[in-house]
Amino acid sequence: MASDLELLDSSEKDLEWFQQNSLELRKRFANRIVAIKHKEIVADARNISELLGILKEKGIDETEVLIDFIIPKNEIVILG
Amino acid sequence: MKIKLFYDKDSKQIRVPVIIKIPHKRIVSDFVIDTGSPHTILNYSNSVRLGVPHTEKSELVRLGGRAYQSYLFSKVEIMFKSDENKEIIEIIPVRILKPSPLRIEEMEQLDRCPNLMGIDFLEKGYKFFCDLAIGEAYFEKL
Predict the structure, then answer these.
(1) Residue A67, strand partner residues
(2) Residues of B in contact with A44 (CB under 8 A)
(3) Chain B closest-CA separation from residue A28 CA (Å)
(4) In terms of CB atoms within 10 Å, which of A66, B88, B100, B141 comes out highest?
(5) How far is CA A55 from each of CA A51, A63, A72, B17, B72, rounded to the nearest angstrom?
(6) B74 C-beta neighbours (distance < 10 Å), count
(7) A67, B49: Cβ pair inside 8 Å?
(8) Residue ranges of A 13-72 with Cβ closer than 8 A to chain B
(9) What is the pLDDT of residues A5-53, one digit of tens each?
(10) Chain centroid, CA B38 distance in Å
(11) Binary contact (B34, A65; C-beta < 8 A)
């Protein structure tokens, strides 16, 4: 099992990769929830319960992946 | 000690990678820095991943023109990595949003909402530095 610092280091790299490839990912996975691990999309689904099911089937530990919703290219998010 | 923040030029969001811990469980995740939010919000998906109970009702929260019931959970540790490769841990109450009444399509909308790191985090004694022109953003413990 990875230590907390190892996990943080890995997720930092995954977040950077996600941001650097955001344009391409927004085209390929628009409106999908994705799981990212080791600079790769390891699963994608319509909602979180479907995604957790796919990760379980693939034997991927869902606690160690970065999960994000992919906003379509022509949409923006305003939170406030 | 500084905590590096990551600016996404495409979505124009500033994010920070974290580990969210409750007793007996941890998950990898990230927060969007939202100085417009008074409180830190844990998104519904992550509350499900952690198995956080939705029992302690808190305020109604307005988001995107819709009101959501929030549920308070106080036993959350948020762990960051410092620029010196050390762990920084903050214990902060989080709120989880749920539509009332529960509707599947609204739950899916909440799946899409990121975790939000609000002003209550900065009140813990962090300086928030951000200069997008030089591509630098970080929290610094005062």
Answers:
(1) A35
(2) none
(3) 15
(4) A66
(5) 6, 10, 23, 21, 28
(6) 9
(7) yes
(8) 14-16, 19, 22-23, 26, 33, 46-49, 52, 62-69, 71
(9) 999 999 999 999 999 999 899 999 999 999 999 999 999 999 888 999 9
(10) 11
(11) no
Adjacent-strand bridge partners of B30: B17
Three-class SS of residue B132? helix
B111 Cβ contact list (under 8 Å, min separation 6): A33, A47, A48, A69, B43, B44, B45
CA dist list (Å): A12 to B16, B19, B81? 8, 11, 9
SS3 A18: helix
Q: Please give the helix or strand (H or E) that residue B47 lies within, else none.
A: helix B44-50
**Which of B6, B26, B111 lies nearest to residue A47, judging by beta carbons?**
B111
Q: How far apart are CA A72 and CA B30, in angstroms?
A: 20
> For strand B25-33 and strand B115-117, is the pairing parallel, antiparallel, or unpaired?
parallel
Side chain identity at B8, as an amino acid letter?
D
Q: Which residue has tokens 């399509």? A: B105
Kindly report whether the peptide bond that precedes residue B101 is cis, defined as omega within 30 degrees of 0. yes
> What is the mean pLDDT of the segment spanning B10-18?
92
CA dist B58 and B97 (Å) reads: 10
